[in-house]
Amino acid sequence: MFVPAQYVAKNPRAIVEAYSFGLLVTTDANGLHATQTPIFFETDDPEEMRLVGHIARRNPQAAGLAHGQPALVVFTGPHAYISGNWYQSKPEVPTWNYVSAQVSGVLEPLDEPEQKRAVLEKTAQKLSAYGEGAWAMDDAPEGRVEVLLPYIRSFRIVAHSIQGASKLSQSHPQDDRDRVIARLKERGHNGDAEIARVMELKDPF
């Protein structure tokens, strides 16, 4: 992952945890595949290097998932266009602020029913953090989860590297950064509010 030194995320794991809808990229005999799906660290250990997720079995990528297969997961956080006119103390051309992380590692299919159920339980547990309306495995109709298990392929990725980028106008004076935050809030396009929010935090990532 290419990241200029001033934008290297100090805590890329936090990006993975905050923006967990990852893009799983693999290759097989049929070429390159990519699927977006929720992917989470397997445990809450801050040193955990294993991630788990699942995709639909009817997805062509699923058939090619194999033990020892190289895998890349891209976690894309908020992003927003930054006008060059917003930088006044230190004039600059237009740019893009963004938060992103990449995990590269080795894939392990998890095809046993108890393994797939464990991945679904982890997914439900993590998504319950969204609060009101959150769904738990116990909320499923009796027997429904068991019916669905054959139609998914779960996987584990043993990560070799976790890298992140947090490009939030760090190279500019504080008055320019404050101006960028204000303009983002005023404009209100997709991603603007979230980029403004993380820019207001001290060392968010």
TrEMBL record:
<dbReference type="InterPro" id="IPR007396">
    <property type="entry name" value="TR_PAI2-type"/>
</dbReference>
<dbReference type="InterPro" id="IPR012349">
    <property type="entry name" value="Split_barrel_FMN-bd"/>
</dbReference>
<protein>
    <submittedName>
        <fullName>Transcriptional regulator</fullName>
    </submittedName>
</protein>
<dbReference type="Pfam" id="PF04299">
    <property type="entry name" value="FMN_bind_2"/>
</dbReference>
